[in-house]
Amino acid sequence: MSALAERTGAINLGQGFPDEDGPAAVLEAAQAAMRDGRNQYAPLPGVPALRAAIAEHQQRFYGIELDPASQVQVTMGATEAIAAAILGLCEPGDDVLAFDPYYDSYPAATAMAGARFVPIPLDPPDFTFDDIVVGPKARVILINSPHNPTGRVFSREELQRIADVVIEHDLIAITDEVYEHLVFDGLEHIPLSTLPGMAERTLSISSLGKTFSVTGWKVGWATGPAELVAAVRAAKQFLTFAGATPFQHAGAAALRLDDDWYRAFALELQAKRDHLCDAFSHFTVARPQGTYFANVDVGRDATEFARELPYEAGVVAIPTSVFSATPERLAPYLRFAFCKRLPVIDEAARRLQSLES
User: Fold this and answer.
1) 83 or 352, which is more confident?
2) Do the bridges between strand 172-176 and strand 138-144 make them parallel or antiparallel, or are there none, so unpaired?
3) How confident is the model at residue 2, as a pLDDT?
4) Nearest to 4 by CA among 346, 242, 316
5) Within 10 A of 63 (CB to CB), how many other CB atoms are there?
6) How many CB atoms are located within 10 Å of the residue 65 CB?
7) 63 in the Ramachandran plot: left (φ > 0), alpha (ψ -120 to 50) or beta?
8) Phi and psi of 221, rounded to 5°?
9) What one-character-per-residue DSSP string does 173-237 give?
10) How far is Cα 25 from Cα 129, in angstroms, rounded to an integer?
11) What are the φ and ψ backbone dihedral angles of 295, each rounded to 5 degrees?
């Protein structure tokens, strides 16, 4: 769809990347690291300054205490952290559970480990879940909240339901929290690891990319119990070993930005969400509680609609069904990314309203 946007000159609201750079202080920190000679291999666990900043971040926002040496592993983005976690923790034949629709690397990483991917449906229009069925070979459950592609933020009650299942069946929880600071309408992101009994069985994953609009830096991390982090480290050693040394140093500066910056950025993104969602007056919008994405019920096959949209309205979006093991369940939904400059969002909204009329 990004190639189609480029070919047609359409506004690309498909792929989830910002169209402007992150905070100037963070960009300068990366340049300063390069000028200061921070350009060679980082240690396998990650640059010490970044590991310390990640531990501080977890304590500052969630009250989670971590040893930076043994409980923090820096990775080449959250995608590598997810792959390394599954490779390090799963054996062939294990079941990996995840909510459907899902980020597309989850089943791929599961397949690389020789494990079996087991989707748990999130049902539209509210994208909630019913019972979680756990088979005898279950090893891991993947939790993504705030959730891509639906924009759902799991409530404390929902997280407790998940925690109860994890504890009852002695599972490991891997939490993908890359949108942790992009939560709207006064809602709260609650790490699963903060619930009773979950700290010792949860591996938490996040990254710089979404929070600081530096998706190309590919700096992520995994935190949690030392034995789970060690499993990630063991797999990562033979994936990339280390990388992005100057960006890791800049990441330490990014995570230490003040609370006002975090709040302002979330409010700015919420305004962009509202500008886009308000444009769909003739469609049903699942207004997201977080992330970069809004899902719209277009009332027909969204894949066909998505192919027509660049030519009819000059806008590109992605069918939500491509993120599902049961695509027919999500056939009318189209995912739009609103992590773009406000004038771009408003122009896309104008074009979409023109299409509706």
Assistant:
1) 83
2) parallel
3) 80
4) 316
5) 9
6) 10
7) left
8) -160, 160
9) EEEE-TTTT-B-TT-----GGGSTT-GGGEEEEEESHHHHT-GGG--EEEES-HHHHHHHHHHHT
10) 41
11) -110, 135
Phi, psi dihedrals of residue 89, rounded to the nearest 5°: -110, -15
Which helix (H) or strand (E) segment holds residue 246: the answer is: helix 245-255
pLDDT value of position 356: 61
Over 90: is that where the pLDDT of 222 sits? yes
351 in Cβ contact with 280 (< 8 Å): no
Long-range residue pairs from 3-10, CB within 8 A, at least 24 positions apart, any chain:
4/310, 4/316, 5/310, 5/316, 8/310, 8/311, 8/314, 8/316, 9/314, 10/309, 10/310, 10/313, 10/314, 10/315, 10/316
In the chain, the amino acid numbered 229 is V
- Beta sheet of 318-319, edge-to-edge order: 284-286, 293-297, 333-337, 318-319
Using pLDDT thresholds of 50, 70 and 90, give the confidence band for residue 228: very high
**Structure token pair of residue 307:** 């192919």
Angle between helices 226-236 and 77-89 (to 10 degrees): 110
pLDDT bracket for residue 242 (50, 70, 90): very high
Asked if 202 contacts 175 with a C-beta cutoff of 8 angstroms, the reply is yes
Q: Which residues are CB-neighbours of 40 under 8 A, at least 6 positions away? A: 245
Q: Specify the residue for token string 């509680």.
A: 289
- Angle value at C-alpha 194, between 173 and 55, nearest 5 degrees: 90
The reported pLDDT for the residue numbered 281 is 82
**Per-residue model confidence (pLDDT) at position 3:** 84
The pLDDT confidence band at residue 297, using thresholds 50, 70 and 90, is: very high
Region 212-233: mean pLDDT is: 98
Q: Which distant-in-sequence residues (6+ apart) come within 8 Å of 338 by Cβ? A: 13, 269, 272, 273, 275, 276, 292, 293, 294, 345
The tokens for 291 are 């992330």
Length of the chain: 357
pLDDT digits (tens, 9 = 90+) for 180-204: 999 999 999 999 999 999 999 999 9
Mean pLDDT lowest among 6-20, 44-58, 154-168, 294-308: 6-20
Evaluate if residue 113 carries a pLDDT over 80.
Answer: yes
Alpha carbons 250 and 178: distance in angstroms, whole number: 18
